[in-house]
Amino acid sequence: MDLASGWFGGRPALASAQLRQARDQGWSGVSLLPEDPSLELEGIEEARRDLGRGFSAAAWDALQAPAHRTAADGHSSAVSTTQEAALARIGETLRRLERLDAPLLVVASGLDDDPRRREEGEALLGRLSCGERIEPEEGPELHDRLPRQDRERQLEAFARFLFELIHRAGGRRVAIAAAPSPAAVLDPEGLALLFGEPSLRGLGYWHRTGAVQARAALGLEEPGAWLEAGAAAAVGATLEDWGEGRGRLFPGEGEVDLRLLAEYLPRRAVRVLSLAPGYPGAALQEAREALESLGLG
Predict the structure, then answer these.
(1) 44 within 8 A of 16, measured Cβ to Cβ
(2) Number of domains in the chain
(3) Are 270 and 28 in contact (CB under 8 A)?
(4) I need a surface site. Which of 14, 86, 259, 276 has the fewest CB within 10 A?
């Protein structure tokens, strides 16, 4: 089992230091997940040589330079100039992935091209994290305000980006993942469409337990719908609990049905514990043991 880079909270910000600390604590390695802080790569080659391995997975957004993080979801945009900017970053992103020696690149869904709906999605997530009541219809209403033809155009743009990414990845696996916002382009139906696209043969699925649980709390699809659509292509999962608007909780503190995930997740899939930085190091081993008892070791 891997430890998510996000537990370090960017301290240290060196990928090499995180990798050494994780191995010293008995973890298989480190994975850089969606929304994790970006890392500095100085010394990573030496650490890889010393330890005999690099990172297990890295996320597209977390591999971007800080100046590009806010536009990291341009890969799903039907606006040609926005997607061209994302395509132009493929080369540098893959070079950073190669330096980490990560065999898997995780790409989370982009958002609706309409900035107003994007802002409304972030506002709903903000209210959820503050413990405010969300009416059952608010999330689905925002999701459905993206016209079907526009969603299809953005999914087509995402597919074109993924085709280029897979073509240039040099044997490294590419996997797609959910985003928590109701303004996200990808939903289980779109997930199934992308997996049915012949040009995207080999595309994988990364299950983000917290992201899909947040969507369910907003009145959108249940986590099982994502597992049904993506399990056959599942290559990894973020193991975090989520509840009352907060993610990266200790297993059992939230609402995530981790036993259900264990039924779907293939044995070969990468498993990554994701805890908030506020948890002490002693909690890591306890969390791993809790996950192992649920069949997620």
Answers:
(1) yes
(2) 1
(3) no
(4) 259
> Cα(42)–Cα(178) distance, rounded to whole angstroms?
31
pTM to 2 decimal places: 0.97
3-state secondary structure of 269: coil
CATH number of the CATH domain containing 278: 3.20.20.150
In this structure, which amino acid lies at residue 268?
A: R
State the amino acid at position 191 in one-letter form. L
Q: Classify strands 246-249 and 241-243 as parallel, antiparallel or unpaired.
A: antiparallel
**Whole domain around residue 193: which residue ranges?**
2-293
pLDDT tens string 26-81: 999 999 999 999 999 999 999 999 999 999 999 999 999 887 787 788 999 999 99
Buried b / exposed e across 235-250, counting CB within 10 Å, b at 16+? Answer: bbbbbbbbbebbbbbb
**Alpha carbon distance 90, 77 (integer Å):** 15
